[in-house]
Amino acid sequence: MMLVVRRWWPGMELTLIGDQRSSVHELGQACARWEVRLVAPLRMDAALSGPAAPRRPGTNGRPRVKGERLPQLAQVLQGAQTPWQRLRVRWYNGRRRELDVTSGTAVWDRIGQPVLPIRWVLVRDPTRRLTPRASCSTCPHDRPRAVVQRFIKRWTIDTTFEESRTHLGLETQRQWSDRAIERTTPCRFGLDSVVTLLAHALQPDGKVPMQRTAWYANSYATCADVLASLRYQVWGDCTFSTSPHDSDLVGIPRSERSRLAQAVCDAH
């Protein structure tokens, strides 16, 4: 996927935001080779080293590719001399949150692989309510704030996958053919985009009608609310043909028809 997008936009700055499974040395090497920024979580015990010292003239043997081994991030977290910087960033819920951040550059090495220069960022919660986490970027010149903000953007990606599984049936296809599954998944992601565009066209101000319950008080519209709003727009104007000569047909009041249509639209 990364290589295809890079071929489409050869000169554009691209950033790939991954989860723990994307924190792979080989993937980072591929991103660096194709000039794609990879932002992913980093293990607290990752083997990081400093850059290799300049080679002295007249030195024999193969040149060094890395410097001295750096302390593990778990040790940096507990170190009394670790410099921390207090940042205010926009958190997953859209609100501002204070975080303590420390960062540095290193090379990530694996046996038999070229070293990968990275920028590592270690984040902790001043209130101690969140677990400290580490992330990295394959662009060592990135600022710590930018790395944290980019990784927070993954929350919208996770939400898209979760709601696509819940409301669009992603990962629950009934086909047994791999090719059929490969066709269905992009179509359902496309359906998610079409639903979003239609909802934006109907409600440009973003005020989508929401269904609230006593046990779940949501403050923003979910995918289910958007689908219900679109269904009502399509089904709400349906007409019921009546005939004065057929006593089995009874006219439905507009208010009752609207209530029935809304109940059907909200059904999952």
Salient structural properties:
2 domains, 268 residues, elongated, seven-stranded mixed sheet, Transposase Inhibitor Protein From Tn5, Chain A, domain 1, 7 strands
Tell me about this structure:
The protein has 268 residues and is α+β, with helices and mostly antiparallel strands. It folds into 2 domains: 2-45 and 70-152, Transposase Inhibitor Protein From Tn5, Chain A, domain 1 (Alpha-Beta Complex), CATH 3.90.350.10; 176-240 and 251-268, no CATH class. It is 36% helix and 17% strand. The protein is built from 8 helices and 7 strands; from the N terminus they run αβαββαββββααααα. The protein has helices at 2-8, 25-33, 73-78, 144-152, 154-167, 178-202, 223-235, 254-266, and strands at 14-17, 36-41, 48-49, 85-90, 96-108, 116-124, 133-137. Strands 1, 2, 3, 4, 5, 6 and 7 form a 7-stranded mixed sheet that branches. Strand 4 and strand 5 (96-108) form a beta hairpin. Helix 6 packs across helix 7. The longest helix has 25 residues, at 178-202. The chain starts with a helix and ends with a helix. The model has no long low-confidence stretch (mean pLDDT 81).
Q: State Rg.
A: 27 Å
**Percentage of residues in strands:** 15-25%
What name goes with the CATH superfamily of the largest domain?
A: Transposase Inhibitor Protein From Tn5, Chain A, domain 1
Number of helices: 8
